Every structure is written in C-alpha cells, then in structure tokens.
C-alpha cells in the first residue's frame, strides 16, 4: 500500500510491505522500518515520533514495470556502482534488466526470486 503523509508542512512518501515472516516493513522516503508481531506498542510510538526528525538520504530502486523477479544479482551489504545489473524482471514474455542509477551499499533487498511486483514497488535500498 502506498500513501502520502503530510506532517507540519513536510510531505512523506510511505509504502507498507508485509512479509511472509510476520514482519511489516514501512518505507518512508526510502528509509526502511521493520516491525514484527512481537513488537511492543512503545516501539511503534517511538518510530512514529522519530519519523519526522529523520534525514532520509537513502536511495531506492523501484520496479519500472509490473512483472516477476526472474533473478537477483546483488546481496545485502554489497557495494555496487552506477550501471550495475541488479535484477532481471520478466514481463509479457520479455526479460528486462534493472540497472542501478546510483552507487552505494545495499542495505535492503525487498524482493525474492519469482516474486510478483507492480510498477513503482521498491525493490532495493542503497545507502
């Protein structure tokens, strides 16, 4: 689910992603926050208070089209350069390479092989 949130004249792009392991990931302007079913309400309240004060300097790679992730060429923690092949995305019987427009360290790979994605879904986060 994608949302826009305005707090004190600042607008945030928010995406909520539920994973199979009972975690919920909330991406706010490229910054990932992970919550699971065992988290206390205090953690959620701290995150809500903390969000407007964050410096969102991370970069995201989004799906350019709707399709299925056929292959993943990067891992969490890996440093990648601009022009690096990140994913192979199958759509309408065609294979599309997703190439990085940024350089940086991979902090999150948010998709798995064979996962369906929609245009605009965040696939990867770099710092």
Written overview of the protein:
The protein is mostly beta strands and 127 residues long. It has 2 domains: 2-53, no CATH class; 59-126, RNA polymerase II/Efflux pump adaptor protein, barrel-sandwich hybrid domain (OB fold (Dihydrolipoamide Acetyltransferase, E2P)), CATH 2.40.50.100. The chain has 1 helix and 12 strands; from the N terminus they run ββββαββββββββ. A 4-stranded antiparallel beta sheet has the order 1-2-3-4, with helices on one face. Strands 5-12-10-7 form a 4-stranded antiparallel beta sheet, with no helix packed on it. Strands 9-8-6-11 form a 4-stranded antiparallel beta sheet, with no helix packed on it. β3 (23-28) and β4 (31-36) form a beta hairpin. The longest helix is centred in the middle third of the chain and has 10 residues, at 41-50. It is globular and about 45 Å long.
